[in-house]
Amino acid sequence: MLKLEQSLNKNYKKRKKIERMNIMTNPFENKDGNYYVLINDEGQYSLWPDFIQVPEGWNIAYGPEGLTVCQDYIEDYWNDLLPTSLKKKKLSIS
Questions:
Q1: What is the DSSP letter of 47?
Q2: Cys bridge to 69: 36, 63, 65, 78, which one at CB 3.0-4.6 A?
């Protein structure tokens, strides 16, 4: 009986390990992760995991902090979704 229990336990652990390896996780949706708030030349914001290199054309505006703190930052600072280049065109037309 003990050997059967050990065998079942060993197989269960193997199966769980394989399941964990097969689960694809999206680093952009990790609620427990740390993020940067990035901004580009157009004044657009983006959340970015702190362990991934910041892409060219983007700069760190805030962080690293937790997901909700970064989301709050974006909500507070990104008041106008219109890209900077379109704002300039809009001003020049007026």
A1: E
A2: 65
Domain ranges of the chain: 27-93
Q: What separation in angstroms does the CA of 92 have from each of 21, 42, 49?
A: 55, 17, 37
- Could you tell me which CATH number the domain at 27-93 has? 3.90.820.10
| pTM of the predicted model as reported, rounded to 2 decimal places | 0.69
Closest CA to 61 of 81, 35, 83: 35
- Tokens 């970064």 label which residue? 70
Q: pLDDT tens-digit profile of 55-90?
A: 999 999 999 999 999 999 999 999 988 888 887 777
Tokens matching residue 4: 């059967």
Distance CA 63, CA 75 (A): 14
Q: What is the percent of the chain where pLDDT is above 90?
A: 49
Q: Which of 56, 41, 47 is nearest to 74 (CA)?
A: 47
